[in-house]
Amino acid sequence: MQGVTVETGVSFAVLGPLEVRDDGRLIEIGGQRLRALLTLLLLDTGRTVPTDALVAGVWDDHPPNGVGNALQALVSRLRATIDRALVVADPSGYRLLVAPDQVDLHRFTRLAREGGRALETGDPGLAVRALTEALGLWRGAPLTDLPAGAVEVARLEEIRIAATEDRIDAELRLGPRPDVVSELSRLVAVHPLRERLRGLLMRALYGSGRQVEALAAYEDARATFADRLGADPSPALAELHLSILRGDSVPSGDSVPSGDSVLHGDSVLRGDGARPVPARPSAQPPARTPAQPLVVRSPPVRKGNLRARLTSFVGREGDVEQVGESLARNRLVTLLGPGGAGKTRLAVESAEAFASSVPDGAWLVELASVLDPAQVPHAVLAALGLRDMGLVSVRPAAGPSADADATGRLVTALSGRAQLIVLDNCEHLVGAAATLADRLLADCPGVRILVTSREPLGITGEVLWPVQPLGLDHAVRLFADRAAAARPGYRARDDRLAVERICSGLDGMPLAIELAAARLRTLSAEQIADRLGDRFRLLTSGSRTAMPRHQTLRAVVEWSWDLLDEEERTLAARLSVFAGGGTLESTEEVCRGDLDVLGRLVDKSLVVFDGGRYSMLETVRAYAGDRLAEMGDEREIRLAHARFFAQMAETADPHLRRAEQVEWLPRLWAEHDNLSSALLWATDQGETDIALTLVGHLGWYWWLVGHRREGAQRAEEAIRLAEGGGPGGDPVKVALAHAVLGLTWAAADLQWDRARESLQTAIQLMRDNQVSGPPHPVVAMAAPILALLLGSDFEANAHLEDLFGHPDPWVAAAAYMFRGNVYFNTGRVAEGESHLRASLDRFREVGDRWGTGNALASLAEAGTMRGTGEAIEILREAIALVDEVGAVEDTPYMRTRLAIVLNIAGDRAGADSVLEEAMRICVDNADPMGKAGVEHVRGDFARERGDFDAARECYHEALRLLGGPELSSARQLHATLSSSLGMLAAQEGDLGRARRLHGEALALAVESQDGPVVAHVIVAYAGLAALEGDHERAAVLLGGATAVRGIVDVVGYDHLRATEAATAALGREEFSRHYERGRAMTREQAVAFAG
């Protein structure tokens, strides 16, 4: 159904370089054709775009052979990159199920229309807001990825310039604006024939007291029109000129008609500068005599005291609507949040929007400068204009009777009114504000109150509205807007990564972001981002007209801190040791704080409680950390924090290899930042025992959750501390740290020489200290892993044999799986399968989902080559198991294997869907090698379909993601990619290039010592031999590949293609004779024959 959309956090931007974001996170759209496809779908969001239109838009006039398959492949890649549910196939084409406001182009056109309507109906303030937001969506040239988009670009540019004219017109209606003169001068230079711009420039100059320049601007317009068009200015512009010449007051309305063109006599002066064309009679404006003034009716006067805003309002438009809905249902709404969260701005915008719902308007009462609680009623009287007074006194009142008298007069004045009162900044006067609000709500039924405060008023009927930090996308928009004001010409998109670091590091807090943007006058965005560790010295350039507590970031937090009592300050300072927050149990044990005090910190917006954890915004935490350092007990608190999390890691470790892993992994993940900060502190402070405990017992956690490189780095630091003579260097713990380091280095392919060294050290330490009882499982696996790294399969097998009877069944299961994979790698498939089944039984027994899933995935490899359908179900079970424990480094590989099996079974749609899932996981976890693997398989699928262009694009994208082949797993993938590119070249007829690529692939495959990869490359050589007509050689190579692999491949596309060609040429009997010759070869012989 047309117009149906899917709820999603994905947003799209085409008014500039194409950007796609999922809840603020940038999604990479690789390849020009993929970007063109997405852009075409975005232009008609929610509507079906016909296939022909997509083909024409993506490939212009040069569609490939099999364009239908090519388009389908491109759509599959798009689904893998964004939420697949968003891209829907219809009989006639494809459509994108997103709401128009998720696309900046459609949001821009909507806001431009709304701004234009507001201008027409006499609401220039609303027009300015809508049009400023609309124009702020532009980041550069639009639709840059659409080769044939010139017409649409021209349409958008015309809407943009018209919206700019409307915005400036609206600003001028609000009063003189000298600041727009330079902008108008630039616009007139670019669009010299737009008469409306000429009129706006004349009005802006005249309104700024520059009459002579305004008259000169008219003369320039008259001369330009005469020279370029042979025409005079319109009567409207001439009348404006006459008013300026006489020194009359210039009407507030526009001087020339708005729209895409300007009417001039019987012709239309087009905005693009084309020659005048006859105007339709219906388009002709009514005749106007010189005596008729060009007056636009002023908007109706609104009651209230809300001032015009000087800056745009970014990111909380939805909040304004929801706050308004809350005010409609409730008479007391409190916007709650820490300093700098944007409470005041949200309150003013919400009050402005709600004002039309209350006959007596919306009134702002600013309490920030009121220091005496007794002065609160007087401040409200003054703000509402209910008595003649100057500044509200900040001295103590004469007594309770004065306060009561002021409240009584206020009640009397408001009892018959229906209005909204905004009590802004109540936290330092919360008791007095609560008393007054309670009285007004009880005695003045038409009054509604909107409060901003850092803590609730705490009275009956109060509805709290927590003001959340800005999401990343809106925070970046705010930074970009304020940065452009601080440094004209600055474009945030050029520093996107640095700007995102700034906005994330500042918790999305508007005031902090504005202070950071102001720093662009003297620092680059990268320099600001790098200096956020010293944020309180960095962010000190607030508005001179702001309250002192809003002029620097330190002052913002200091104001809240000064409102705390001693107990609250002590607990808040101690809570700063928690990175990422903590549970009630951890905060009570580490901080020794009272639950009631913790609750008060939550009420005062210093601590955030999300239902399970207590946390601080990073800026608040940084300030509290500085205060902790001044209190004298920082080391004691940090030591308690480190010990607590070391004990947690030690307790959790054995459970991570049992059925309870599904309970413990989420607990550790929630504390990941605390565990890391505890380890860093312990290492930095020389707490060797704590550091070694954390490293040793987090090793398997790092392995499971995909933080293996972090684990290697942290283990190295702890070992350096222990071996540097630090106290507490228990040799058993040092051995475990070395084993963790060796295992993670070997797995992550960081430094195999260092991995061997660490594993040798771990083994030697255990021998030297004659440890009684079984070692930690990671230490137990050190010897066979070391033997394999040293190239000794015999020694590795001997060590594994010793582990088969290990008292820990998990170690035995891991040993069986290890040997099974070793056998697979050396072509001993039957023995490998036997060991993997033994491993599977033991992993199931202990309940380890990671081990069970990996054993199943390995078993599925052999099943796939035999063509057994059970491989699909085996892989689905494996994926479900590793997904359950969140093993993000394992699941993409398993999904690509499942996609291959589904493709072999003929389920191409299912295969594409699984690849989309794999790619999404890789993107979410910043896994370039995983993404490269997915692109490789996509390329193979495209090559099988005959879509060679798509295959090449996928292979090259995979190579780009991989970088160089320095790491061993990268060597394996580089080898298979090079051979796939070689097979592609061969299929396209470039046999010389194919041979060169196969040679590179074979060298890398041999270096990787990976048997299946070597077999893959030998099959590629067989395909090349068949194409060269050497079918005997092809048959021998196919037999050699089977010998290396240890199993006959009855389903592989390239194996079958070469087999069919050689069999057809030689006959079955002759083919078998040469094939068996290859099967009798060793790996070394097969490699030598191929090369």
From TrEMBL:
Residues 103-245 form the Bacterial transcriptional activator domain. SMART domains: BTAD (SM01043), TPR (SM00028), Trans_reg_C (SM00862). It comes from the Bacteria. Gene3D superfamilies: P-loop containing nucleotide triphosphate hydrolases (3.40.50.300), Tetratricopeptide repeat domain (1.25.40.10), Winged helix-like DNA-binding domain superfamily/Winged helix DNA-binding domain (1.10.10.10). GO terms for biological process: phosphorelay signal transduction system; regulation of DNA-templated transcription. Keywords: DNA-binding. Residues 250-300 are annotated as: Disordered. Residues 24-96 form the OmpR/PhoB-type domain. One of its GO terms (molecular function) is DNA binding. Belongs to the AfsR/DnrI/RedD regulatory family. This is AfsR family transcriptional regulator. It comes from Planotetraspora mira.
